Amino acid sequence: MGASVRLLRAVLMGPPGSGKRTVALRITKGFQLKTFSSGDLLRDNLLRDTEIGSWLLCGFPRTLPQAEALERAYQIHLVMSLNVPSEVIKQRLSARWIHPSSGRVYNLEFNPPKAIGLDDLTGEPLVQREDDRPETLNQRLKAYEDQTKPVLEYYREKGVLETFSGTKTDQIWPCVRAFLQTKVPQIDQKASVTP
């Protein structure tokens, strides 16, 4: 690895709808980290005994056994937890619609499609994910809290947990960015500011 490579292994946690994906995209753009949304790539690299350098895990680990297994394989340098009130999350997710074949995400409140119910690029119908519907959302949020409370405590005891609270991603992002600037040099000043 060259001298310009930064080694940082970070975890981004937060309940469904807290803005993890948006924050992860901004982090990877502004700090040139690789992001992974599951453990598949890590398991593959463990099997092949390779080194993958700097990365950000988004939404993993979710349970204490996963966190402990990850720590046995890699030293985690920091864990960022997004703390967004449940009522805000429920409002966000009930307004979220997706284009199934592309994965494009729309929000009726702050990123609406040009034509209600239709994808901007293809004109195909948008759908609401089953787990974003109000009747299943309470169960998801409760499950997240039950599973991740011990994970957050585990990382708090290790001294690597940093929590960011707010009601909007654009409110939380500047705090995350400022914190990461103390850990990793920015690659592109413009990239770290734009959504």
TrEMBL record:
UniProt xrefs under InterPro entries: Adenylat/UMP-CMP_kin, Adenylate_kinase_lid-dom, P-loop_NTPase
Signal peptide span: none
Gene Ontology terms, MF aspect: AMP kinase activity; ATP binding
UniProt cross-references to Pfam families, sorted A to Z: ADK, ADK_lid
Alphabetized UniProt keyword annotations: Kinase, Nucleotide-binding, Transferase
Keyword Kinase among record annotations: yes
Keyword Transferase included in the entry's annotation: yes
UniProt xrefs under Gene3D superfamilies: P-loop containing nucleotide triphosphate hydrolases (3.40.50.300)
Tree of life domain: Eukaryota
All residue ranges annotated as the Adenylate kinase active site lid domain in the record: 96-131
HAMAP family in the cross-refs: Adenylate_kinase_Adk (MF_00235)
Membership in a protein family: Belongs to the adenylate kinase family.
Protein name, as recorded: GTP:AMP phosphotransferase AK3, mitochondrial-like isoform X2
